[in-house]
Amino acid sequence: AQTVTQSQPEMSVQEAETVTLSCTYDTSENNYYLFWYKQPPSRQMILVIRQEAYKQQNATENRFSVNFQKAAKSFSLKISDSQLGDTAMYFCAFGEGNAGNMLTFGGGTRLMVKP
Amino acid sequence: EAGVAQSPRYKIIEKRQSVAFWCNPISGHATLYWYQQILGQGPKLLIQFQNNGVVDDSQLPKDRFSAERLKGVDSTLKIQPAKLEDSAVYLCASSPTSGRLLRDEQFFGPGTRLTVL
Questions:
Q1: How far apart are CA B16 and CA B2, in angstroms?
Q2: In this complex, is the C-beta atom of B103 within 8 Å of any C-beta atom belonging to chain A?
């Protein structure tokens, strides 16, 4: 079974600065996808960014980018120019290519952006 | 486009009682998921439907949990009888196509917060 580990339960960052959230996973599969989801306080969980394992190029979505290290099974999320609206729980998730669209989530990192 | 709808938003029950949650996915989405999110943890998949068929229910405690998706649209998740450890947020999500394309984004509802006393 796949496992996803987020080793930082809580983090904080000053507004406009950069922060990196860590995620490691364990799998023997070659075909998989990785995701970062954001869950703001009392609001729906939304997708931030996704990465296909077969792609070497790191995914980027505006202020959000990932550092995907396949050999190390590491998938970190970098948030640049942090904004107050980035305050949320962030979940790293793993999806196996041969298992439909089932996701395994990590335990989450609570990010607080301070003014 | 309307999002995933869930009701009720909050529910408090005594242990050994029964409870049901309802989910209406985004119109046209073929795949529907129920997750259990215990406080301080990430969501755990309970069951996945594709249209009105079950794709995976390996993590559903079938002695007390049941779910159905009649006509491949709305879905209901039931717990009978509830235990203290069932206290959690129950999230419903849907994705547009067959659910076998991992690049399909899952769209989440607001969740139902269940407290079992």
A1: 35
A2: yes
